Amino acid sequence: MSALPTLVRRAQQVLDHNRRGAWTCPSSALYAHQWLWDSCFIAVGVARYDPERAAAELRALLRGQWANGMLPHMIFADSSHDAGSRTIWRSRTRAFAPRDVATSCITQPPLLAIATSRVADALPGAQREQLLTDLVAPLVEYHTWLYAARDLGSGLVTLIHPWECGLDTTPPWMQELGRMPLPIWLRVAVRLRLARALRALRYDTRHLPASQRASDDDGLRMLVLAIRAGEHDFELRRMPRDTSVLVEDLAFNSLLIAANRSLERIAAEIGSPVGPELQQSFRRTEAALEALWDEPSGQYYSRNPASGDLIRTPALSTFLPLFARVPSRERAARLVSLLRDPEKYWPAWGVPSVPVDAPGFSETSYWKGPTWVNTNWLIAEGLAAYDESQLAADLRRRTIELVENAGFWEYFSPLSGAGYGAPDFSWTAALVVDLLALTTPAP
Ligand code: 2M8
Q1: Are 164 and 234 in contact (CB under 8 A)?
Q2: Quick one: which atom of ligand 1 is closest to the CA of 35?
Q3: Ligand 1 atom closest to Cα of 27?
Q4: Interatomic CA distance for residues 370 and 349, integer angstroms
Q5: In this structure, is residue 251 part of a structural domain?
Q6: CATH code: domain of residue 404
Q7: Which of 15, 28, 138, 392 is deepest in the core (most CB within 10 A)?
Q8: Residue 163 Cα, ligand 1 centroid: separation in angstroms?
Q9: In a domain, 1, yes or no
């Protein structure tokens, strides 16, 4: 027990080290900018000990909001050595983008309403009201944009790039990306393994072993996809179906459902309820998510909106509908037994991003096998919502132990518990603070 306060102190040190004024970068070693869902996870943890800082973290995300309502997945830091990623987007040339900060032109999982609720719960009365009052309009604009720009009629939001789902190299997305028709120069590059030569231009592989990151070919395809989307101003409805990679993403839509509910509560509390049209969209998403269930395998999958086919490649996003509280008891029970299978999702250190018996599983490779603190946090919340409190507590305890033993890494081997990726990673630190608060009885 005596080790727990030390872990909280060390987590706070990591978060202080990565602090850049009002916001916190994911890792000083690798990620210099502000990321959308990172800041939401960070705020949830920081709210446990400094709710005002947590509120500022969320407010800082609004700097990047576009005039059409979109919240970009990255807001670039002014002085950064990583100029490359900013030039992919050239946000200042886009009609709706803010002029005073450079941003990416795509979004990321919409956790802001959820984080806002959690931070507000930690603030005293007047500050709580202020935060909710200030954030409700930007949140309504963001959710309205998600439906107006990205719902092609199914009730689910369609993503235009794997970076939007947050689980960047997750196999279902890499499978779809692998089918993307390539320009001739890229086909030649892939055949001749020239992509490897471009590694020198990549920021991540200058700092980390290439085996722990997106492969050279996947990295190049992701880059091509971003450039192609830019040719159509990142507008889904303008993008050609044959050369784009579009996915009704399971993780994103599950988190959206939970965020929609948070937004409805926030709006009701401050006396300006969400309008009927948006409410209707919210209800449609809840119903539409159930169409992503595959009865024979007892799992949820993402879907290709063009073909209407489920992308039946297993990944941990199958458990995120639990966070959305959508599955029936029967479906939840099937997910729980899948989760408990040590050959798949419950090795020594769960939950791996890909089942350990899947063909492409790699214990060290980014979203293709490692276990991550943020997804463990989401899955534990989902389990607790389905009265699986023992399993939730076990997952939370194992996640804390993982970090206590190895340090605040970006991700971990689910087999050995060793840490990989970026060191001193902010959401790992923040969510450990939250997990400790959830698992330690109040004095
Ligand atoms: C990773 O994604 C970025 C691109 O957005 C990257 O690979 O450089 C993902 O793990 C993503 O979920 C995360 O938000 C970001 C920063 O931690 O890193």
Answers
A1: no
A2: 14
A3: 17
A4: 9
A5: yes
A6: 1.50.10.10
A7: 15
A8: 7
A9: no
The length of the chain is: 443
Classify residue 419: in a domain, yes or no. yes
- Whether residue 235 lies in the annotated active site: no
Q: 132 lies in which domain range? A: 6-437
Instruction: Report CA-CA distances (Å) from 428 to 167, 170, 171, 372, 386.
Output: 15, 19, 23, 8, 24
In the 8-state DSSP scheme, what is residue 388?
A: -
| 219 in contact with ligand 1, CB cutoff 6 A | no
Question: What is the atom index within ligand 1 of the atom nearest the CA of 167?
Answer: 12
Instruction: Give the type of residue at 220.
Output: L
How confident is the prediction along the chain (443 residues), in pLDDT tens digits per residue?
445 589 999 999 999 999 999 999 999 999 999 999 999 999 999 999 999 999 999 999 999 999 999 999 999 998 766 666 778 899 999 999 999 999 999 999 999 999 999 999 999 999 999 999 999 999 999 999 999 999 999 999 999 999 999 999 999 999 999 999 888 877 787 777 666 666 666 677 777 888 777 788 888 899 999 999 999 999 999 999 999 999 999 999 999 999 999 999 999 999 999 999 999 999 999 999 999 999 999 999 999 999 999 999 999 999 999 999 999 999 999 999 999 999 999 999 989 999 999 999 999 999 999 999 999 999 999 999 999 999 999 999 999 999 999 999 999 999 999 999 999 999 999 999 999 999 976 66
Please tell me which residue in 38, 151, 164, 168 is annotated as part of the active site.
168
Q: Is 412 close to ligand 1, i.e. is its CB under 6 Å away? A: no
366 lines ligand 1 (CB under 6 A): no
Q: Candidates 23, 31, 411: which one to mutate for ligand 1, based on the most atoms within 8 Å of Cβ?
A: 31
Q: Return the ligand 1 atom nearest residue 410 CA.
A: 17
Considering 164, 410, 424, 434, which one is annotated as catalytic? 410
Q: Which amino acid is at 41?
A: F
Assigned domain for 443 exists: no
Q: Of the residues 14, 20, 30, 163, which should be mutated to test ligand 1's pocket, given the most ligand atoms within 8 Å of the CB?
A: 163
Taking the complete model, does pTM exceed 0.85, yes or no? yes
43 within 8 A of 119, measured Cβ to Cβ: yes
How many domains would you assign to the chain? 1
Check pocket membership of 217 for ligand 1, CB cut-off 6 A: no
Q: Which three-class secondary structure string do you get for 331-375? A: HHHHHHHHHCCCCCCCCCCCCECCCCCCCCCCCCCCCCCCECHHH
